[in-house]
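Sample 1 of the test manifest.
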Amino acid sequence: MSDRTPAGGPQPGSEAFEAELRDEIRRELETHASEGGGPEIVELRDVWLSFGDHEVLRGVSLGVARGGTLCILGGSGVGKSTILRLMLRLLLPDRGEVLIEGRDISAVSRPEALALRERMGMVFQGSALFDSLNVFDNVAFPLYEHTTLAEDEIRERVEEVLSFVDLDPAVVLPLLPSALSGGMRKRVAIARAIAHRPPILLFDEPTSGLDPITTRRIDELILKLRRELHVCVVVVTHDVRSASRIATETALLRDGEIIFSGTPEEMHATEDRYVRAFRG
Amino acid sequence: MRSNAFWRSGEHTSIPERAPKIVPDGSARRSAARLARDAVLRMAFAVEAYCRLFVRVSRACLSQPFYRGDLVQQMDTIGVASIFIVMLTGLFTGMVLALQSAVEMERFGATVYIGRLVGASTIRELGPVLTALIVTGRAGAGMAAALGAMRVTEQVDALRTMGVDPIRKLVVPRFLAALVMLPVVTIIGDAVAILGGLLIAVLTLDFTAQLYINSVWDTLAQSGFVLRVIPIDLIQGLVKPFTFGGIIALTSCFHGLRAEGGTEGVGRATTRAVVTSSILILAADYFLTQILLAMFQW
Protein backbone atom coordinates (compact mmCIF):
# COMPACT_ATOMS: atom_id res chain seq x y z
CA MET A 1 0.00 0.00 0.00
CA SER A 2 2.85 2.30 0.79
CA ASP A 3 3.90 2.24 -2.84
CA ARG A 4 0.42 3.03 -4.10
CA THR A 5 -0.11 6.52 -5.44
CA PRO A 6 -3.49 8.09 -4.73
CA ALA A 7 -3.66 9.51 -8.24
CA GLY A 8 -5.53 7.13 -10.51
CA GLY A 9 -6.51 4.78 -7.68
CA PRO A 10 -9.41 4.93 -5.24
CA GLN A 11 -9.48 7.94 -2.96
CA PRO A 12 -8.40 7.49 0.69
CA GLY A 13 -11.41 6.94 2.89
CA SER A 14 -13.56 5.46 0.10
CA GLU A 15 -14.94 1.94 0.38
CA ALA A 16 -12.93 0.82 -2.63
CA PHE A 17 -9.81 2.19 -1.04
CA GLU A 18 -10.44 0.37 2.23
CA ALA A 19 -11.23 -2.86 0.37
CA GLU A 20 -7.98 -2.57 -1.52
CA LEU A 21 -6.14 -1.84 1.74
CA ARG A 22 -7.62 -4.94 3.40
CA ASP A 23 -6.76 -7.14 0.41
CA GLU A 24 -3.23 -5.89 0.49
CA ILE A 25 -2.87 -6.46 4.22
CA ARG A 26 -4.29 -9.95 3.81
CA ARG A 27 -1.77 -10.71 1.08
CA GLU A 28 1.03 -9.42 3.31
CA LEU A 29 -0.15 -11.62 6.17
CA GLU A 30 -0.37 -14.65 3.93
CA THR A 31 3.17 -13.97 2.81
CA HIS A 32 4.32 -13.74 6.42
CA ALA A 33 2.47 -16.97 7.22
CA SER A 34 4.20 -18.81 4.42
CA GLU A 35 7.58 -17.59 5.68
CA GLY A 36 7.51 -19.79 8.72
CA GLY A 37 6.05 -20.28 12.16
CA GLY A 38 3.65 -22.94 13.31
CA PRO A 39 -0.06 -22.61 13.69
CA GLU A 40 0.43 -20.95 17.09
CA ILE A 41 1.68 -17.47 16.34
CA VAL A 42 2.00 -16.59 20.03
CA GLU A 43 2.73 -19.31 22.54
CA LEU A 44 3.87 -19.62 26.14
CA ARG A 45 5.34 -22.99 27.16
CA ASP A 46 5.66 -23.81 30.84
CA VAL A 47 6.54 -20.26 31.84
CA TRP A 48 7.60 -19.55 35.41
CA LEU A 49 8.26 -16.12 36.82
CA SER A 50 8.79 -14.82 40.30
CA PHE A 51 9.41 -11.39 41.78
CA GLY A 52 11.63 -12.07 44.75
CA ASP A 53 9.87 -14.70 46.84
CA HIS A 54 6.52 -14.14 45.16
CA GLU A 55 5.74 -16.59 42.36
CA VAL A 56 3.69 -14.69 39.78
CA LEU A 57 3.45 -17.34 37.07
CA ARG A 58 3.73 -21.07 37.71
CA GLY A 59 4.05 -23.19 34.62
CA VAL A 60 1.78 -21.16 32.38
CA SER A 61 1.19 -22.61 28.91
CA LEU A 62 -1.13 -21.04 26.38
CA GLY A 63 -1.21 -20.08 22.73
CA VAL A 64 -3.19 -18.50 19.95
CA ALA A 65 -3.18 -19.06 16.22
CA ARG A 66 -3.15 -16.46 13.44
CA GLY A 67 -6.54 -14.85 13.08
CA GLY A 68 -7.55 -15.92 16.58
CA THR A 69 -8.31 -13.85 19.67
CA LEU A 70 -7.11 -15.11 23.02
CA CYS A 71 -8.61 -13.49 26.09
CA ILE A 72 -6.65 -13.98 29.29
CA LEU A 73 -9.03 -13.54 32.20
CA GLY A 74 -8.37 -13.26 35.88
CA GLY A 75 -8.75 -11.11 38.95
CA SER A 76 -6.63 -8.13 39.79
CA GLY A 77 -2.95 -8.76 40.44
CA VAL A 78 -2.84 -12.38 39.26
CA GLY A 79 -0.23 -11.69 36.58
CA LYS A 80 -2.32 -11.13 33.46
CA SER A 81 -0.46 -8.02 32.32
CA THR A 82 2.81 -9.75 33.20
CA ILE A 83 2.08 -12.26 30.43
CA LEU A 84 1.89 -9.43 27.88
CA ARG A 85 5.13 -7.98 29.20
CA LEU A 86 6.76 -11.37 28.73
CA MET A 87 5.50 -11.52 25.15
CA LEU A 88 7.13 -8.15 24.50
CA ARG A 89 10.27 -9.09 26.42
CA LEU A 90 9.77 -6.23 28.81
CA LEU A 91 10.29 -9.06 31.32
CA LEU A 92 12.18 -12.31 31.00
CA PRO A 93 10.85 -15.56 32.41
CA ASP A 94 12.75 -17.50 35.05
CA ARG A 95 11.95 -20.67 33.13
CA GLY A 96 10.02 -21.66 30.01
CA GLU A 97 9.65 -20.35 26.47
CA VAL A 98 7.79 -17.37 25.03
CA LEU A 99 7.39 -18.11 21.34
CA ILE A 100 6.52 -15.36 18.89
CA GLU A 101 6.02 -16.75 15.39
CA GLY A 102 7.92 -19.84 16.49
CA ARG A 103 10.94 -18.04 18.00
CA ASP A 104 11.62 -17.71 21.69
CA ILE A 105 11.76 -13.95 22.23
CA SER A 106 13.28 -14.42 25.67
CA ALA A 107 16.24 -16.36 24.24
CA VAL A 108 17.10 -14.47 21.05
CA SER A 109 19.64 -11.66 20.80
CA ARG A 110 18.57 -8.10 21.49
CA PRO A 111 18.43 -7.02 17.81
CA GLU A 112 16.37 -10.12 17.02
CA ALA A 113 14.07 -9.32 19.92
CA LEU A 114 13.61 -5.79 18.58
CA ALA A 115 12.73 -7.24 15.19
CA LEU A 116 10.18 -9.54 16.82
CA ARG A 117 8.76 -6.60 18.76
CA GLU A 118 8.13 -4.83 15.49
CA ARG A 119 5.84 -7.76 14.63
CA MET A 120 3.63 -6.75 17.55
CA GLY A 121 1.47 -3.77 18.39
CA MET A 122 0.58 -3.04 21.99
CA VAL A 123 -2.39 -1.11 23.36
CA PHE A 124 -1.73 -0.20 26.98
CA GLN A 125 -4.34 -0.01 29.70
CA GLY A 126 -4.01 3.76 30.00
CA SER A 127 -3.43 4.12 26.23
CA ALA A 128 0.13 5.42 26.87
CA LEU A 129 -0.13 8.08 24.19
CA PHE A 130 2.78 10.51 24.24
CA ASP A 131 1.47 13.59 26.05
CA SER A 132 3.71 16.03 24.24
CA LEU A 133 2.77 14.84 20.74
CA ASN A 134 -0.48 15.44 18.91
CA VAL A 135 -2.55 12.61 17.46
CA PHE A 136 -0.77 12.70 14.12
CA ASP A 137 2.68 12.47 15.68
CA ASN A 138 1.55 9.74 18.06
CA VAL A 139 0.17 7.54 15.29
CA ALA A 140 3.03 8.36 12.93
CA PHE A 141 5.68 7.66 15.58
CA PRO A 142 6.30 3.97 14.73
CA LEU A 143 6.27 4.83 11.03
CA TYR A 144 8.97 7.46 11.43
CA GLU A 145 10.97 5.03 13.56
CA HIS A 146 10.72 1.87 11.51
CA THR A 147 9.83 2.69 7.94
CA THR A 148 11.32 4.69 5.13
CA LEU A 149 7.97 6.04 3.99
CA ALA A 150 7.89 9.55 2.60
CA GLU A 151 6.09 12.29 4.51
CA ASP A 152 2.97 12.20 2.34
CA GLU A 153 2.82 8.40 2.55
CA ILE A 154 3.01 8.57 6.34
CA ARG A 155 0.20 11.13 6.42
CA GLU A 156 -1.86 8.90 4.14
CA ARG A 157 -1.22 5.87 6.36
CA VAL A 158 -2.10 7.81 9.54
CA GLU A 159 -5.38 8.98 8.02
CA GLU A 160 -6.17 5.43 6.92
CA VAL A 161 -5.68 3.86 10.33
CA LEU A 162 -7.59 6.65 12.07
CA SER A 163 -10.48 6.10 9.66
CA PHE A 164 -10.24 2.38 10.38
CA VAL A 165 -10.81 3.03 14.09
CA ASP A 166 -13.76 5.31 13.25
CA LEU A 167 -12.08 8.62 14.01
CA ASP A 168 -12.27 11.60 11.67
CA PRO A 169 -8.66 12.48 10.80
CA ALA A 170 -9.60 16.05 9.95
CA VAL A 171 -10.86 16.54 13.49
CA VAL A 172 -8.45 14.58 15.65
CA LEU A 173 -5.08 14.91 13.88
CA PRO A 174 -4.03 18.21 15.48
CA LEU A 175 -5.39 17.41 18.94
CA LEU A 176 -3.22 16.59 21.92
CA PRO A 177 -4.11 13.41 23.87
CA SER A 178 -5.31 15.55 26.79
CA ALA A 179 -8.11 16.87 24.57
CA LEU A 180 -9.47 13.38 23.82
CA SER A 181 -12.06 11.34 25.71
CA GLY A 182 -11.13 7.95 27.18
CA GLY A 183 -12.69 6.05 24.28
CA MET A 184 -11.02 8.26 21.69
CA ARG A 185 -7.65 7.86 23.39
CA LYS A 186 -8.09 4.11 23.28
CA ARG A 187 -8.93 4.22 19.58
CA VAL A 188 -5.94 6.45 18.83
CA ALA A 189 -3.80 3.95 20.76
CA ILE A 190 -5.22 1.15 18.59
CA ALA A 191 -4.51 3.20 15.46
CA ARG A 192 -0.91 3.68 16.62
CA ALA A 193 -0.57 -0.04 17.33
CA ILE A 194 -1.77 -1.06 13.84
CA ALA A 195 -0.05 1.77 11.91
CA HIS A 196 3.00 -0.33 11.02
CA ARG A 197 0.73 -3.33 10.31
CA PRO A 198 1.93 -5.86 12.84
CA PRO A 199 0.45 -9.34 12.58
CA ILE A 200 0.06 -9.56 16.37
CA LEU A 201 -1.88 -7.15 18.57
CA LEU A 202 -1.74 -7.13 22.35
CA PHE A 203 -4.37 -5.36 24.46
CA ASP A 204 -4.04 -4.68 28.17
CA GLU A 205 -7.48 -4.16 29.72
CA PRO A 206 -8.85 -2.41 26.62
CA THR A 207 -12.25 -1.67 28.15
CA SER A 208 -11.43 -0.89 31.77
CA GLY A 209 -12.78 2.45 32.91
CA LEU A 210 -14.99 2.85 29.84
CA ASP A 211 -18.79 3.16 29.82
CA PRO A 212 -20.81 0.21 28.41
CA ILE A 213 -21.43 1.86 25.04
CA THR A 214 -17.77 2.72 24.51
CA THR A 215 -16.82 -0.74 25.76
CA ARG A 216 -19.06 -2.23 23.07
CA ARG A 217 -17.46 0.00 20.43
CA ILE A 218 -13.97 -1.10 21.41
CA ASP A 219 -15.09 -4.74 21.35
CA GLU A 220 -16.51 -4.27 17.86
CA LEU A 221 -13.26 -2.64 16.81
CA ILE A 222 -11.26 -5.64 18.04
CA LEU A 223 -13.60 -7.94 16.12
CA LYS A 224 -13.14 -5.76 13.05
CA LEU A 225 -9.37 -5.99 13.40
CA ARG A 226 -9.53 -9.76 13.41
CA ARG A 227 -12.15 -10.00 10.71
CA GLU A 228 -10.67 -7.50 8.27
CA LEU A 229 -6.95 -7.47 9.02
CA HIS A 230 -6.68 -11.14 10.08
CA VAL A 231 -4.37 -10.25 12.92
CA CYS A 232 -3.75 -12.40 15.96
CA VAL A 233 -5.09 -10.68 19.07
CA VAL A 234 -4.21 -11.30 22.70
CA VAL A 235 -6.42 -9.47 25.18
CA VAL A 236 -5.91 -9.27 28.91
CA THR A 237 -9.13 -8.42 30.69
CA HIS A 238 -11.27 -9.10 33.72
CA ASP A 239 -14.47 -8.32 31.77
CA VAL A 240 -16.11 -11.69 31.06
CA ARG A 241 -18.89 -10.23 28.93
CA SER A 242 -16.40 -8.42 26.75
CA ALA A 243 -14.27 -11.57 26.46
CA SER A 244 -17.33 -13.61 25.46
CA ARG A 245 -17.98 -11.22 22.61
CA ILE A 246 -14.48 -11.04 21.15
CA ALA A 247 -12.60 -14.23 22.07
CA THR A 248 -12.03 -17.35 20.06
CA GLU A 249 -10.08 -18.78 23.00
CA THR A 250 -10.14 -17.93 26.68
CA ALA A 251 -7.74 -18.72 29.50
CA LEU A 252 -8.48 -18.10 33.16
CA LEU A 253 -5.54 -17.29 35.40
CA ARG A 254 -5.60 -17.88 39.14
CA ASP A 255 -2.68 -17.85 41.57
CA GLY A 256 -0.23 -17.86 38.70
CA GLU A 257 -1.73 -20.93 36.98
CA ILE A 258 -4.09 -21.38 34.07
CA ILE A 259 -7.05 -23.14 35.68
CA PHE A 260 -9.23 -23.16 32.59
CA SER A 261 -8.71 -22.76 28.86
CA GLY A 262 -11.19 -23.23 26.07
CA THR A 263 -13.66 -21.40 23.90
CA PRO A 264 -16.05 -18.86 25.41
CA GLU A 265 -18.85 -21.41 24.97
CA GLU A 266 -16.86 -24.01 26.91
CA MET A 267 -16.19 -21.44 29.62
CA HIS A 268 -19.89 -20.79 29.99
CA ALA A 269 -20.66 -24.51 30.03
CA THR A 270 -18.05 -25.57 32.56
CA GLU A 271 -19.12 -26.56 36.06
CA ASP A 272 -15.87 -25.51 37.70
CA ARG A 273 -16.85 -23.52 40.77
CA TYR A 274 -14.22 -20.81 40.42
CA VAL A 275 -14.94 -20.29 36.73
CA ARG A 276 -18.65 -20.08 37.48
CA ALA A 277 -18.00 -17.61 40.26
CA PHE A 278 -15.74 -15.54 38.05
CA ARG A 279 -18.17 -15.33 35.14
CA GLY A 280 -20.90 -14.27 37.64
CA MET B 1 11.33 -6.94 43.86
CA ARG B 2 11.92 -7.75 40.20
CA SER B 3 12.98 -11.17 39.02
CA ASN B 4 16.69 -11.69 38.57
CA ALA B 5 16.09 -12.65 34.98
CA PHE B 6 14.57 -9.26 34.30
CA TRP B 7 17.69 -7.44 35.39
CA ARG B 8 19.89 -9.90 33.53
CA SER B 9 18.08 -9.02 30.33
CA GLY B 10 19.74 -5.62 30.12
CA GLU B 11 16.50 -4.45 28.52
CA HIS B 12 15.20 -2.39 31.38
CA THR B 13 15.40 1.36 31.22
CA SER B 14 14.12 2.08 34.64
CA ILE B 15 17.06 1.85 36.93
CA PRO B 16 16.78 -1.19 39.16
CA GLU B 17 16.43 -0.98 42.87
CA ARG B 18 17.88 -4.37 43.59
CA ALA B 19 18.66 -3.98 47.22
CA PRO B 20 16.20 -5.60 49.58
CA LYS B 21 13.24 -3.42 50.48
CA ILE B 22 12.70 -2.65 54.12
CA VAL B 23 9.35 -4.14 54.99
CA PRO B 24 8.16 -3.26 58.48
CA ASP B 25 7.03 -6.55 59.95
CA GLY B 26 6.10 -5.25 63.35
CA SER B 27 8.74 -7.40 64.92
CA ALA B 28 11.11 -5.93 67.52
CA ARG B 29 13.74 -8.44 66.46
CA ARG B 30 14.70 -6.45 63.41
CA SER B 31 17.86 -4.82 64.55
CA ALA B 32 19.08 -1.31 63.82
CA ALA B 33 22.21 -2.85 62.35
CA ARG B 34 20.17 -4.69 59.76
CA LEU B 35 18.24 -1.56 58.87
CA ALA B 36 21.49 0.30 58.44
CA ARG B 37 22.88 -2.51 56.29
CA ASP B 38 19.79 -2.42 54.06
CA ALA B 39 20.09 1.34 53.68
CA VAL B 40 23.77 1.07 52.74
CA LEU B 41 22.99 -1.71 50.26
CA ARG B 42 20.24 0.35 48.66
CA MET B 43 22.59 3.28 48.36
CA ALA B 44 25.31 1.08 46.83
CA PHE B 45 22.90 -0.36 44.27
CA ALA B 46 21.65 3.13 43.42
CA VAL B 47 25.22 4.32 42.85
CA GLU B 48 25.91 1.28 40.68
CA ALA B 49 22.75 1.94 38.66
CA TYR B 50 23.69 5.62 38.29
CA CYS B 51 27.12 4.68 36.98
CA ARG B 52 25.63 2.16 34.58
CA LEU B 53 23.25 4.83 33.29
CA PHE B 54 26.21 7.16 32.73
CA VAL B 55 28.04 4.46 30.74
CA ARG B 56 24.95 3.70 28.64
CA VAL B 57 24.33 7.37 27.94
CA SER B 58 27.97 7.96 27.02
CA ARG B 59 27.91 5.06 24.59
CA ALA B 60 24.59 6.15 23.12
CA CYS B 61 25.99 9.66 22.54
CA LEU B 62 28.56 8.19 20.18
CA SER B 63 26.32 6.01 18.03
CA GLN B 64 23.17 6.08 15.93
CA PRO B 65 20.23 6.62 16.02
CA PHE B 66 20.47 10.18 17.21
CA TYR B 67 17.43 12.36 17.82
CA ARG B 68 18.50 15.83 16.62
CA GLY B 69 15.02 17.33 16.87
CA ASP B 70 14.76 16.33 20.52
CA LEU B 71 18.25 17.76 21.17
CA VAL B 72 17.25 21.15 19.77
CA GLN B 73 14.02 21.10 21.76
CA GLN B 74 15.89 20.30 24.96
CA MET B 75 18.47 23.00 24.30
CA ASP B 76 15.56 25.40 24.17
CA THR B 77 13.93 24.01 27.32
CA ILE B 78 17.09 23.74 29.41
CA GLY B 79 19.04 26.70 28.09
CA VAL B 80 17.03 29.37 26.33
CA ALA B 81 14.07 29.15 28.70
CA SER B 82 16.41 29.49 31.70
CA ILE B 83 18.21 32.59 30.48
CA PHE B 84 15.82 35.15 31.96
CA ILE B 85 15.85 33.73 35.48
CA VAL B 86 19.63 33.24 35.32
CA MET B 87 20.07 36.86 34.25
CA LEU B 88 17.84 38.03 37.08
CA THR B 89 19.80 35.96 39.58
CA GLY B 90 23.10 37.20 38.18
CA LEU B 91 22.03 40.83 38.28
CA PHE B 92 21.06 40.79 41.95
CA THR B 93 24.02 38.63 42.94
CA GLY B 94 26.44 41.06 41.30
CA MET B 95 24.74 44.02 42.93
CA VAL B 96 24.78 42.46 46.38
CA LEU B 97 28.41 41.41 45.99
CA ALA B 98 29.43 44.96 45.09
CA LEU B 99 27.45 46.44 47.98
CA GLN B 100 28.75 44.02 50.61
CA SER B 101 32.35 44.20 49.44
CA ALA B 102 32.17 48.02 49.37
CA VAL B 103 31.23 48.07 53.05
CA GLU B 104 34.15 45.84 54.04
CA MET B 105 36.74 47.28 51.68
CA GLU B 106 35.99 50.84 52.61
CA ARG B 107 37.50 50.14 56.04
CA PHE B 108 40.83 49.40 54.40
CA GLY B 109 40.55 51.98 51.69
CA ALA B 110 40.47 49.24 49.07
CA THR B 111 37.21 49.98 47.29
CA VAL B 112 39.16 50.18 44.08
CA TYR B 113 39.36 46.40 44.15
CA ILE B 114 35.60 45.87 44.09
CA GLY B 115 35.66 45.02 40.39
CA ARG B 116 38.33 42.38 41.03
CA LEU B 117 36.33 40.83 43.83
CA VAL B 118 33.05 40.77 41.93
CA GLY B 119 34.72 39.46 38.78
CA ALA B 120 36.76 36.71 40.43
CA SER B 121 34.05 35.41 42.73
CA THR B 122 31.43 35.49 39.99
CA ILE B 123 33.44 33.83 37.26
CA ARG B 124 35.17 31.23 39.44
CA GLU B 125 32.45 30.24 41.88
CA LEU B 126 29.16 32.04 42.20
CA GLY B 127 28.30 32.15 38.51
CA PRO B 128 28.69 28.44 37.77
CA VAL B 129 27.22 27.23 41.07
CA LEU B 130 24.25 29.60 41.26
CA THR B 131 23.40 29.05 37.61
CA ALA B 132 23.58 25.29 38.07
CA LEU B 133 21.32 25.43 41.13
CA ILE B 134 18.82 27.65 39.32
CA VAL B 135 18.77 25.32 36.29
CA THR B 136 18.40 22.34 38.62
CA GLY B 137 15.31 23.85 40.19
CA ARG B 138 13.86 24.86 36.87
CA ALA B 139 14.90 22.40 34.17
CA GLY B 140 16.12 19.47 36.31
CA ALA B 141 12.83 19.28 38.18
CA GLY B 142 11.03 19.49 34.84
CA MET B 143 13.08 16.63 33.41
CA ALA B 144 12.47 14.37 36.39
CA ALA B 145 8.75 15.15 36.41
CA ALA B 146 8.36 14.64 32.67
CA LEU B 147 10.22 11.33 32.62
CA GLY B 148 8.54 10.20 35.83
CA ALA B 149 5.11 10.91 34.37
CA MET B 150 6.07 9.04 31.20
CA ARG B 151 7.20 6.10 33.28
CA VAL B 152 4.11 5.80 35.47
CA THR B 153 1.76 6.23 32.50
CA GLU B 154 3.58 3.46 30.58
CA GLN B 155 4.81 5.82 27.87
CA VAL B 156 8.37 4.60 28.46
CA ASP B 157 7.17 1.02 27.99
CA ALA B 158 5.31 2.13 24.86
CA LEU B 159 8.60 3.44 23.44
CA ARG B 160 10.27 0.12 24.13
CA THR B 161 7.47 -1.89 22.55
CA MET B 162 7.98 0.22 19.43
CA GLY B 163 11.63 -0.78 19.40
CA VAL B 164 12.87 2.63 20.59
CA ASP B 165 15.57 2.80 23.27
CA PRO B 166 14.30 5.29 25.89
CA ILE B 167 17.87 6.12 26.85
CA ARG B 168 18.58 7.35 23.33
CA LYS B 169 15.25 9.04 22.87
CA LEU B 170 14.78 10.62 26.30
CA VAL B 171 18.08 10.80 28.17
CA VAL B 172 20.74 11.48 25.52
CA PRO B 173 19.13 14.66 24.12
CA ARG B 174 18.70 16.07 27.65
CA PHE B 175 22.25 15.11 28.63
CA LEU B 176 23.86 16.71 25.58
CA ALA B 177 21.62 19.77 25.74
CA ALA B 178 22.58 20.36 29.37
CA LEU B 179 26.29 19.89 28.60
CA VAL B 180 26.13 22.51 25.87
CA MET B 181 23.69 25.00 27.39
CA LEU B 182 24.92 25.23 30.99
CA PRO B 183 28.21 26.93 29.97
CA VAL B 184 26.28 29.26 27.67
CA VAL B 185 23.78 30.42 30.30
CA THR B 186 26.58 30.61 32.87
CA ILE B 187 28.55 33.03 30.69
CA ILE B 188 25.41 35.12 30.28
CA GLY B 189 24.78 35.00 34.04
CA ASP B 190 28.41 35.98 34.76
CA ALA B 191 28.22 38.92 32.38
CA VAL B 192 25.00 40.19 33.94
CA ALA B 193 26.41 39.77 37.47
CA ILE B 194 29.47 41.82 36.54
CA LEU B 195 27.11 44.38 35.02
CA GLY B 196 25.12 44.41 38.27
CA GLY B 197 28.34 45.16 40.16
CA LEU B 198 29.10 47.92 37.66
CA LEU B 199 25.71 49.53 38.28
CA ILE B 200 26.33 49.67 42.03
CA ALA B 201 29.93 50.81 41.57
CA VAL B 202 28.96 53.65 39.26
CA LEU B 203 25.67 54.72 40.86
CA THR B 204 26.47 54.46 44.55
CA LEU B 205 30.27 54.31 44.90
CA ASP B 206 31.19 57.02 42.39
CA PHE B 207 33.37 54.69 40.30
CA THR B 208 33.85 55.29 36.62
CA ALA B 209 32.77 52.43 34.39
CA GLN B 210 36.28 52.27 32.92
CA LEU B 211 37.87 51.84 36.34
CA TYR B 212 35.49 49.04 37.25
CA ILE B 213 35.94 47.20 33.95
CA ASN B 214 39.72 47.52 34.15
CA SER B 215 39.54 46.11 37.66
CA VAL B 216 37.53 43.09 36.46
CA TRP B 217 39.92 42.53 33.56
CA ASP B 218 42.93 42.75 35.89
CA THR B 219 41.68 39.84 37.92
CA LEU B 220 41.12 37.77 34.79
CA ALA B 221 44.56 38.62 33.48
CA GLN B 222 46.24 37.99 36.81
CA SER B 223 45.55 34.25 36.73
CA GLY B 224 47.13 33.93 33.30
CA PHE B 225 46.02 32.80 29.88
CA VAL B 226 45.62 29.60 27.95
CA LEU B 227 46.70 29.88 24.31
CA ARG B 228 47.62 33.49 25.14
CA VAL B 229 44.04 34.76 24.82
CA ILE B 230 41.70 32.68 27.01
CA PRO B 231 41.86 33.64 30.70
CA ILE B 232 42.40 30.65 32.97
CA ASP B 233 39.60 31.91 35.20
CA LEU B 234 37.25 31.63 32.27
CA ILE B 235 38.36 28.04 31.64
CA GLN B 236 37.48 27.24 35.23
CA GLY B 237 34.22 29.07 34.80
CA LEU B 238 33.37 26.87 31.83
CA VAL B 239 34.65 23.49 33.02
CA LYS B 240 32.40 23.68 36.05
CA PRO B 241 29.08 24.39 34.30
CA PHE B 242 29.91 21.73 31.70
CA THR B 243 30.26 19.19 34.51
CA PHE B 244 27.24 20.53 36.38
CA GLY B 245 25.13 20.24 33.21
CA GLY B 246 25.95 16.55 32.98
CA ILE B 247 25.15 16.06 36.67
CA ILE B 248 21.78 17.84 36.39
CA ALA B 249 20.61 15.92 33.32
CA LEU B 250 21.87 12.52 34.43
CA THR B 251 20.54 12.80 37.98
CA SER B 252 17.14 14.14 36.89
CA CYS B 253 16.69 11.47 34.23
CA PHE B 254 17.90 8.79 36.65
CA HIS B 255 15.28 9.65 39.25
CA GLY B 256 12.58 10.27 36.64
CA LEU B 257 13.06 6.82 35.10
CA ARG B 258 12.88 5.23 38.57
CA ALA B 259 9.56 6.85 39.45
CA GLU B 260 7.00 4.40 40.76
CA GLY B 261 3.60 4.70 42.37
CA GLY B 262 1.58 7.14 40.29
CA THR B 263 1.61 10.89 40.67
CA GLU B 264 2.91 10.68 44.22
CA GLY B 265 5.89 8.74 42.92
CA VAL B 266 6.53 11.42 40.31
CA GLY B 267 6.58 14.03 43.08
CA ARG B 268 9.03 11.96 45.11
CA ALA B 269 11.26 11.45 42.07
CA THR B 270 11.28 15.18 41.35
CA THR B 271 12.22 16.05 44.92
CA ARG B 272 14.99 13.46 44.92
CA ALA B 273 16.29 14.75 41.59
CA VAL B 274 16.55 18.33 42.83
CA VAL B 275 18.07 17.43 46.20
CA THR B 276 20.57 14.94 44.77
CA SER B 277 21.59 17.24 41.92
CA SER B 278 22.13 20.16 44.30
CA ILE B 279 24.31 18.11 46.63
CA LEU B 280 26.30 16.62 43.77
CA ILE B 281 26.85 20.07 42.27
CA LEU B 282 28.20 21.48 45.52
CA ALA B 283 30.41 18.45 46.09
CA ALA B 284 31.65 18.44 42.50
CA ASP B 285 32.39 22.17 42.79
CA TYR B 286 34.78 21.54 45.67
CA PHE B 287 36.62 18.69 43.94
CA LEU B 288 36.78 20.51 40.61
CA THR B 289 38.21 23.57 42.33
CA GLN B 290 40.90 21.40 43.93
CA ILE B 291 41.76 19.82 40.60
CA LEU B 292 41.78 23.11 38.70
CA LEU B 293 43.88 24.80 41.37
CA ALA B 294 46.38 21.98 41.15
CA MET B 295 46.39 22.11 37.35
CA PHE B 296 46.86 25.84 36.97
CA GLN B 297 48.98 26.45 40.08
CA TRP B 298 47.08 29.35 41.56
